């Protein structure tokens, strides 16, 4: 490397030699000592220090993350609960995007039993596929479960949905929902449900007469649309073709199953900060349609007196009546 011009003042004026590779501080020809400025050595020491700090920080961060991810990996093992072995950082989602939705769950139930443990990243999940135990948790012993795991969504409307609420808010809403969905009230909804089942039967019969092959998916989506609209809101979709088309599109969107295509597709399930589950719960355009519909129907119902005695009711009637009763009890 050629000596910098500033260094020549320390050697003879006629000497323009290169620095000796083995002795970079001496002139090759005249052997005069070239006094290199001290900042070059300081700069080298500083660079070495920074590299050391960066490497040490990366090692410490990696160790911390590994410890954080694996700190709960023995959660089910300590309790004697079977389950697949988790890995870092995906937990038991390693091959989730390679299988159809639900396929992996069925395989694990066969292998580990109806009750087993899985991990979403570092979060432990207890999978329960035993109907009697599910009934015990959701009905008989529901009061003993303080909260629930909720979907982390960013949309303000979805944030108030039953999938997203948690804590004390979830408890108060659950009380109203349970009152509206009592066994007695479900019986009162049966006439509406039976009517939509009759419509499904007629639709399938009609399709079978036209063609030997029946599009079952189409019939089921139309049935779900009819059942939800009539049972929840008291809306007859056959009376409004435009509303029927929009409702069927929304239901088709809500019940569609999309299989993840890569590890990045499941990242919102594993790490809340890496994405949003909004579109997984309900697409934005479908949410907008349902929100507008709910506001419209609620506005109409609230302008009327809440009275469900002796009349054909839908779920919204029962829900409003339960909410009014809850207000009276609280007062």
Automatic annotation (TrEMBL):
The chain crosses the membrane at residues 46-69. One of its GO terms (molecular function) is iron ion binding. The keyword Membrane applies. Keywords: Heme, Iron, Membrane, Metal-binding, Monooxygenase, Oxidoreductase, Transmembrane, Transmembrane helix. Pfam families: p450 (PF00067). Belongs to the cytochrome P450 family. This is Cytochrome P450. It comes from Graphocephala atropunctata.
């Amino acid at each position: 490397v050629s000596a910098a011009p500033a260094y020549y003042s320390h050697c003879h004026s006629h000497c323009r030699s290169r620095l000796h590779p083995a002795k970079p501080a001496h002139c090759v020809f005249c052997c005069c000592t070239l006094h290199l400025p001290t900042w070059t050595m300081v700069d080298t020491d500083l660079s070495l220090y920074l590299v050391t700090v960066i490497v040490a920080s990366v090692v410490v961060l990696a160790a911390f993350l590994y410890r954080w991810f694996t700190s709960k990996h023995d959660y089910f093992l300590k309790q004697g609960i079977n389950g697949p072995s988790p890995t870092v950082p995906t937990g038991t989602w390693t091959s989730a995007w390679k299988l159809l939705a639900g396929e992996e769950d069925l395989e694990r139930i066969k292998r580990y039993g109806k009750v087993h443990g899985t991990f979403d990243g570092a979060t432990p999940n207890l999978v329960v596929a035993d109907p009697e135990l599910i009934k015990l948790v959701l009905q008989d012993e529901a009061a003993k479960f303080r909260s629930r795991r909720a979907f982390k969504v960013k949309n303000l409307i979805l944030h108030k949905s039953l999938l997203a609420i948690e804590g004390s808010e979830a408890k108060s809403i659950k009380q109203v929902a349970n009152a509206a969905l009592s066994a007695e009230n479900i019986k009162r909804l049966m006439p509406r449900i039976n009517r939509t089942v009759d419509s499904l039967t007629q639709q399938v019969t009609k399709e079978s007469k036209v063609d030997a092959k029946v599009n079952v998916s189409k019939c089921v989506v139309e049935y779900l649309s009819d059942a939800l609209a009539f049972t929840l809101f008291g809306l007859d979709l056959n009376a409004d073709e435009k509303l029927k088309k929009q409702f069927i599109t929304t239901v088709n969107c809500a019940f569609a199953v999309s299989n993840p295509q890569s590890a990045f597709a499941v990242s919102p399930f594993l790490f809340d900060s890496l994405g949003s589950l909004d579109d997984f719960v309900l697409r934005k355009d479908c949410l907008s349609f349902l929100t507008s519909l709910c506001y419209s129907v609620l506005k109409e119902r609230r302008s009327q007196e809440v009275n469900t005695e002796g009349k054909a009711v839908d779920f919204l009637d029962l829900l409003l009546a339960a909410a009014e009763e809850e207000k009276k009890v609280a007062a």
